[in-house]
Amino acid sequence: MTKALYGGVNAALITAMHADLSPDHVRTAAHAKWLLANGCDGLGVLGTTGEANSFGLGERRVILESLVQNDVPVTRLMPGTGTTNLSDTVELSRHARELGCPGVLLLPPFYYKNPSEEGLYAYFSEVIERIGGGLAVYLYHFPAQSAVPLTVPLIGRLLEAFPGVVRGVKDSTGDPAQAEGFIKAFASRGFEVYPGADNLLQRMLGIGAAGCITAAANIVARFSQVVYAKRSGPEADAAQAVLNAGRAAASSVPLIAGLREVLARSTGDEAWRHIRPPNTRLSPAQADAVWAAWEGTGALPLPGLAEHGLSLAAE
Q1: Which residues catalyse the reaction (predicted)?
Q2: CATH no., domain 8-231
């Protein structure tokens, strides 16, 4: 079986922003390095949590370049490069390959709804052929957001056509049956399945998941790492209980704004609340409620982050 390129705990990295809503490369890179030092094996960059589709093509390129320039190990990065069109997806993917990323995460083309399986197969095939090799492709299954589901038969066709290139899937449905379906169908062939729901981590690891890629790992990665490393037993069970509580806390308000609020309060750094429309900041009542929910999870305080955040705020 081929070793998983991103095996382990991967956080869906938040993209920091300045007050004018331009990307804040210093804070983003610093948070990335803090995550890698506190439980993460890798980072999903410019996914849903990173607000990829709120940034233009040039901005996305510079965000990824700046992470590398700021000494975030490129081999630990899985950038999201899927867009609504073939040309931009290929351009972003080639750019990631040129920087040295081992793989990329591809959304399906999500503007036209109810595409046929043949249309999706043609799209992914064309993207892979135009990228030209040297890059692993991971599929991003998030129909609640994209409205374009990826089926087991479709993935099977792509695996047959592009062996060793189509390497895995991030399943963000939160449905254990969906993740289990991918694992049972393809894990024996080295296909990497990464659930996006923290509450499923222990269960999915037990049947062959390669790890996870989750938004709440921005907060709970050190507990995710315990589950990944131990798998079972009292220590793993206790850590999984924290993940379950964290998932509930994160889901109690709009996800991205809620995670930003926790980072802002944990660091004392107002800048973490900056968010691009159409996403908006939490109301004061929501902010207080989500902080209280997170305080009850056992995941706070975040080790070393407050001091680090205050030093950034002073720059």
Answers
A1: 140, 170
A2: 3.20.20.70
Tokens 């308000």, residue located: 253
Per-residue DSSP letter, 232? S
- Average pLDDT of 173-197? 97
Is residue 307's pLDDT more than 80? no
Residue ranges of E strands in the chain: 8-12, 42-45, 77-79, 103-106, 136-141, 166-171, 192-195, 211-214
Residues 250, 43: contact at Cβ < 8 Å? no
Residue 66 identity: S
Q: What is the pLDDT of residue 308?
A: 63
State yes or no: pLDDT of 311 exceeds 70: no
Binding positions are 49, 213
Q: Which residue is catalytic, options 123, 140, 194, 228?
A: 140
Specify the amino acid at residue 19: A
Q: What is the pTM of this model?
A: 0.96
In this model, does residue 313 exceed pLDDT 50?
no
Q: CA-CA distance, 60 to 66, in Å (whole number)?
A: 10
Tokens found for residue 147: 């409205």
Which member of 33, 170, 194, 228 is catalytic?
A: 170
Q: How far apart are CA 246 and CA 240, in angstroms?
A: 10
At residue 2, the pLDDT reads: 66
Residues annotated in a binding site for pyruvate: 49, 213
Whether the per-residue pLDDT at 15 is higher than 60: the answer is: yes
